[in-house]
Amino acid sequence: MTMRFLDEDEELNPIVSAVNLVDVFLVIIAALLIALAQNPLNVFSADNVTVIKNAGEPNMEVIVKEGKEIKQYKSTGDIGSGEGMRAGVAYKMADGSFVYVPEDESAEQVNNGGGQD
Hints:
The protein has helices spanning 14-37, 105-111, and strands at 49-53, 61-66, 69-74, 88-92, 98-102. It is an alpha+beta fold.
């Protein structure tokens, strides 16, 4: 009578199907880990990566990864906007080269209407 357990049909045993499900989930987890390791923005890789999402669109994003540091820059959608001031003038020469002429502060004050308050 003790041999009856060994003769039991494997298809009727619910433990066998549970073991098969565990095997399937282990394969899925291994595939996800491999995909995560190959992601270019993986924090553990030492590569420097720049990713541009939605290039040329108003909602463009630039993601820069340098070592373990990740910076994200989002576009406001405005062309030519930002904070800053004029730093000089660039001229294109006949041979195709560019010459940059920085402005000194006295010339900038004259251009802005004087300089004395």
